[in-house]
Amino acid sequence: NLINQLLYAVFFPSSSSSSLSAGAGGWSPLTSDRYQWLEVDLGERTRITAVATQGRYGSSDWQTSYLLMFSDTGHNWKQYRQEDSRGFFPGNSNADSVVQYKLQQPAIARFLRLIPLDWNPSGRIGLRLETYGCPYTSDVLSFGGSSSSSSSSKVVSLKFKTLRNSGTLLHAEGEGGLSLSLELERGKLQLLLRQGGTSSPEPRRLASLGSLLDDQHWHHVAVERRGAHLNLTVDKHTERVQIPTELDLALYKIPFGLPNPNKTFCLVFFLINIHVSCCFISLVIIFLSLLLPLSLSLSQGNVTFSCTEPVSVAVTFPGPQSFLQLPGAAATAASVGFQFRTWNKAGLLLTFDLPQEGGVVWLYLSEARLRLQIHKAGRALLELSAGSALNDGQWHSVDLTSGRGRLTLAVDKEEGGVAHASPSFPVAVGRQLFFGGKRGCPAEDDSQECRNPFDIFQGCMRLLTVDNQPVDLILVQQRLLGNYSQLQIDMCGIIDRCSPSRCEHGGHCSQSWTVFHCNCSDSGYSGATCHSSVYQQSCEAYKHNGNTSGHFYIDVDGSGPIKPQLVYCNMTEENTWMVIQHNNTELTRVRPSPGLNQHLIHFDYSSQEEQLSAITGQSEHCEQELSYHCRKSRLLNTPEGTPFSWWLGGPGSGRIQTYWGGAQPGSQQCACGLQGDCVDPQHYCNCDADRTEWADDSGLITHKESLPVRSLVLGDVQRPGSEAAYRVGPLRCHGDKNFWNAAFFDKETSYLHFPTFHGELSADISFLFKTTASSGVFLENLGIKDFIRIELSSSTQVLFSFDVGNGPLEVRVESDVPLNDNRWHRVRAERNVKEASLRLDELPAATQEAPADGHFHLQLNSQLFIGGTASRQKGFRGCIRSLQLNGVTLDLEERAKITPGVRPGCPGHCSSYGSLCQNQGRCVERANGFQCDCGLSAYTGVFCHTEVSAIFKSGTSVSYTFKEPYELIRNSSTLPSSIYSDMTLRGENVSLSFRTNQSPALLLYISSYYREYLALLINKHGEEAFILKECVCVVEVERLEVILFFQINQDAREDFNLTSDGEFNAIKSLVLGRVHESDELDPDLARLAALGFTGCLSVVHFNSISPLKAALLHPDTSPVIITGPLVQSNCGSLASANPYAAENTHHLSGKDLSGKRWGESQPLVNAIRTDSALIGGLIAVVIFVLVTGLAITARFLYRRKETYRNQDVKGVKQEDSPDFPFNNQTDSQNVSDENRKEYFI
Question: Domain 38-135 belongs to what topology?
Answer without folding.
Answer: Jelly Rolls (2.60.120)
